[in-house]
Amino acid sequence: MHPYKRSARVSDLIREEVADIIMNKIKHKTLGFITVTGAKVSDDLRHATVYLSVFNVEDNKKTLRKLNSSASFIKGELARRLKMRYVPSIIFKIDEAIEYGRKIDKMLDDIKSEGSTVDEDEELF
């Protein structure tokens, strides 16, 4: 028996394959630098959400539009590569966790810089 669910194993496989398809098969010159950060497949293996990180944040909406319009092509490529009865339908979304992590880092840096100015002021008295 495997240590985790089939949908989790399929998610990992789809993440790897979709990243390869985007890198090698899709020929949009304006697509930019994309990282496939994760995939989540439903328990019935019919639907997959693929999470992306786009280097240029201003291009998020344009990149999502282009990839979602290419979803049927990507699904066809997955069907050729995977040995599955049903290939899940694919929806692309921007991974918000990376931006959330940046905000937390900025807040921690702000707190650290405020703490260092307070320590300097206390030494004067």
Describe the structure.
With 125 residues, the chain is of the alpha+beta class. It has two domains: 6-94, 2-Layer Sandwich (GMP Synthetase, Chain A, domain 3), CATH 3.30.300.20; 96-125. The chain is 55% helix and 18% strand. The protein is built from four helices and three strands, in the order αββααβα. The chain has helices at 6-24, 60-69, 71-81, 96-124; strands spanning 34-41, 47-54, 89-94. The protein has a three-stranded mixed β-sheet. Helix 1 (6-24) crosses helix 3. It is flat. The chain starts with 5 loop residues before the first helix and ends with a helix. The model has no long low-confidence stretch (mean pLDDT 84).
Summarize the structure.
The chain is 55% helix and 18% strand.
Helical residue percent band:
55-70%
Taking Cα atoms only, what radius of gyration do you get, to the nearest Å? 20 Å
Q: What is the distance, rounded to the nearest whole angstrom, between the alpha carbons of the first and last residues?
A: 67 Å
Mean pLDDT: 84
The count of helical stretches stands at 4
So what's the CATH class of the largest domain?
Alpha Beta
The CATH architecture classification of the largest domain is 2-Layer Sandwich
Shape: flat
Structural class: alpha+beta
Task: State the major sheet.
Answer: 3 strands, mixed
The third-level CATH topology of the largest domain is GMP Synthetase, Chain A, domain 3
Strand order of the largest sheet: 1-2-3
β-strand percent reads 15-25%
Please tell me the total number of domains: 2
- CATH fourth-tier homologous superfamily of the largest domain: K homology (KH) domain
| Unreliable residue stretches | none
User: Would you report the number of β strands?
Assistant: 3
Order of helices and strands, N to C? HEEHHEH
